[in-house]
Design goal:
- With about 500 residues, this protein is α+β, with helices and mostly antiparallel strands.
- The protein has 3 domains: about 5-135, lambda repressor-like DNA-binding domains (434 Repressor (Amino-terminal Domain)); about 145-275, Arc Repressor Mutant, subunit A (Orthogonal Bundle), CATH 1.10.10.2910; about 280-495, no CATH class.
- About 50% of the residues lie in helices and about 10% in strands.
- It contains 21 helices and 10 strands.
- The chain starts with a helix and ends with a helix.
Amino acid sequence: MIPHKHVIRLIFGLKVRELRKQKGLSFAELSQASGLSVSYLNEIERGKKYPKADKILALSEALEVSYDNLVSLKLSKRLSPVADLLRSSFFQELPLEFFGLEPGQLLELIAGAPTKINAFISTLIEIARNYEMQQEQFYFAAVRSYQELNDSYFEDIEKAVADFSRAKGLDTLPCVPVDALERLLRDEYGYKLDGDLLTNIPELTGLRSLFNKKKRMLMINPSLSPTQRAFLLARELGFNELALKTRPLFTPGIQASSFEEALNNFKASYFAVALLVNQRHLIPDLEQLFARESWNTSLFTDLLQRYQASPEMLVQRLTNLLPRHFGIRNLFMLRFRHVPGDAGSPDEYFITKELHLARLHSPHANEINEHYCRRWASIRVLQDLRALQLGGGSTGNSGAAPGTSPGPLADFQRSTYVGSKEEYLILSLARPNAPSPGNISITLGLQVDDRLRKLVAVLNNDSIPLVTVNDTCERCPLNDCLERVAPPLVLEREARTAAMRKAVEGVLRG
């Protein structure tokens, strides 16, 4: 976030820059006229320095404007759009420092063509408004971009986790007992834990946790699984160990009041996953897994059991460790939510979280009400889980009795996209979305290249099925797809447009 005093410096620097150029003065000439050094003038114009009164007076005399005019926050007509942008919440909430940018760098770009740049940014804001993008979604998107820029690995948090685990004797076992987490919160940080209040208030039954700062009381929904409970407890340790003061008070976080809150929640969550899925144990397990020449789904559900981890925790940890320790950077992670339909509506699938390293991979979230390809393992594993819950028999992934709530299911495949040579190794895990209705799946996609083939032995045989997939049914040309749930309307519209253009060109040539 850019402080208000920084905005004042930026506006002052803009005015000095514009007046200097209007007078046709170089930095050296303005330096000679004002008595201020060239380097100091440069810092003023870039919004890094705000001079004291005597230096402002010297500048005003050199630029032949009044003192009051120079310190006024009012800009010329040409630059007034810049002032509006600087004062806007959009600019105020830009976390520039996390992307290696200085406000002055952005300011130089804006000041060069203020009307055009302001129109461009206004267009982006209008698009976001039309798609009902809320401010907190911008925060979450910025955090995700920050994560992607760092290859999803944060050395400082990893070190904090390693030091904490070693000091508390938690690093010798692959999973941390829930009672140890509870004891640490009580003894080290004076927490009180409550398991009843959320279920006693109807409006709060959908929350997983709520934290009362004054009473230092953490209320956890009793319907959560042990792994969900462990994550929430470990995240609280993260908030405290990393000294993160600005934080969300309830989970799931349906809103964030600032970028700092969204970022701190990410850091504490990263701490929790790193604590619960210790890399010193998982890395050797992954090396053994990659050396195997055949896979089955139990390999992944066994990993969940060994680390007492949720599917999302395990896949999230893989996105941390694969780039750093195995050199696998072309990967993506998706979280799908399945909302079962009723007699009058079909099942719906939404991407609610995504991470893309190296570049934007397919598939990715869309807000255009199209139907995601049902050939993905991400959706197939959700369909299998739903069938088990409805008593549709076993899929081979779970021993749960029909009609009961089975544990996590796993599925994997090799995927190649229609009209593309790109191939991905896909791992998907699904679980009930308690206490909310429906189910979720977490998918890890690894782009298959020479490096991955050398690392993962199973890719050198045909034991994993290769499935041709696409992004959405509306954009898919496959005619014999049994899984299709919508006609290729987008392709048909594009074909009609192409035919019309061809006819127009024919008429014009004639």
